[in-house]
Amino acid sequence: MIFSKVRKACFVIILPLLVLVFACRNDRNAATWQQADQADTTEAGIADNIPQVKQLTAQIAADTANADLYFLRGNVYLQANSPKQASADFYRALALDSLNSTYYLAAAGVFFMQKDLPTAIKLLEKARQTLPDSLNIKTELGKYYFYVQAYDKSETELTMVTGKQPQNAEAWFWLGMNHRDKKENGKAIECFNRAVQADASFYNAYMVMANLQAANKDKKALDNYAKAIALDTASVEARYGKALFLQNNGKTKEALTEYRQIVLIDPQHADTHYNVGYIYFNNKDYETALKSFTMAIGTSPTFAKAYYMRGLCAEKLGKTANARTDYESALKFDPELSMAKEALTRVQ
Fold first, then answer.
1. CB of 297 within 8 A of CB of 310?
2. What is the pLDDT of residue 123?
3. What phi, psi does 223 have (nearest 5°)?
4. What pLDDT, on the 0 to 100 scale, is given for residue 46?
5. CB 141 within 8 A of CB 172
6. Low-confidence ranges of the chain (pLDDT < 70)
7. CA separation for the pair 174, 155 (Å, rounded)
8. Are 74 and 93 in contact (CB under 8 A)?
9. Distance in angstroms (rounded) separating the CA atoms of residues 123 and 116
């Protein structure tokens, strides 16, 4: 549990989409060209002027049946933020070679990036029928099922993958995410452990596992936050998770050390300034606490609880007028903040 007055950390997991690799197959399923030709050509104006696109287009003109060339050009389009053009080329590659799992993953990945999960899932379900032994397809499909909360389907795909490929870190991770969302934290942590055993550089697995452990006041959380930090020394979310765990478990000196590191990385991190102020307030160092809450407000001007806490500091320092102003500001941004209502009544 976290302090009632300390804002809960919101960790955004940014997950890699797809690793697109070069592959080659034979000519199949030319009917898929119809889907490719539906791409919006308005994107081509800028993207087609990219030197790599021009080079690949010339190569395609000389070898129109080469699926890999379309696939490579699709990746260039994707990097140039032309997803429709990229999708068209991935479909063209599939039209020439419908047995290449990489092409399916690439095309589905474009839909995933555009948050069109139904289309991405439909495409991968077709890929699974065409390539029933592809564990890569099953892993990605399991991930997409997770995103639409089709947990049973997701677990079916991912369990099949981990059974045949016990070292598949990605499959273990998404299986763990299913268990996490179903509040099966013990199973989730077990899966995340399997993920990092298979891939010791799996940052997201360390982070999600640490967050679950921190919620249970499990000291193992510190080890996993530390491993995440070792993988990304500039990670604010990992350092914040570690600092918050230390603070919530009475290790305020250690927490302050970590918070100072966060401020060096991101001086605009409002929650860090707030939590530092909260620690100093509890230590009755109201002047220092007030400064920290002021910094929190400076970086997040609508931070109602920061106004409230700064008002408490002002009240403790005998600055009643300042306290009243801050309590009023707190209620302006959060009219339901009962603590501020009580405080404002107290200083009227």
1. yes
2. 97
3. -65, -40
4. 67
5. no
6. 1-46
7. 9
8. yes
9. 11
For residues 47 and 52, give the distance between their C-alpha atoms in angstroms, rounded to a whole number: 10
**Cα 142–Cα 136–Cα 129 angle in degrees, nearest 5:** 75
**How many residues are recorded in the chain?**
348
CA 219 to chain centre: 24
pLDDT attached to residue 107: 97
| pLDDT value of residue 109 | 97
Retrieve residue 147's tokens.
């995103």
Of the candidates 170, 180, 249, the residue with the CA atom closest to the CA atom of residue 208: 180
Q: What helix, strand, coil percent values describe the chain, rounded to 5?
A: 70, 0, 30
Residue with tokens 């991930």: 143
pLDDT for the residue numbered 175 = 98
Place of tokens 């998770």: 241
CA distance 315 to 297: 17
Domains, the chain? 20-132 (1.25.40.10)
Per-residue pLDDT, 47: 76
pLDDT for 25 equals 33
Q: Which amino acid is it at 103?
A: Y
CB 295 within 8 A of CB 272: no
- Tokens at residue 156, please? 């079916």
Measured between alpha carbons, how far is residue 177 from residues 118, 193, 232 in Å?
Answer: 20, 12, 21
Burial tier of 64 (Cβ tally within 10 Å: 0-12, 13-18, 19+): exposed
pLDDT value of position 9: 33
Distance CA 104, CA 140 (A): 10
Place of tokens 């199973």: 187
Tokens of 284: 């009755």
Task: Say if residues 297 and 303 touch (Cβ distance below 8 Å).
Answer: yes
Q: How far apart are CA 127 and CA 134, in angstroms?
A: 9
Work out the burial of residue 130: count CB atoms within 10 Å of its CB; fewer than 13 is exposed, 13-18 middle, 19 or more buried: middle
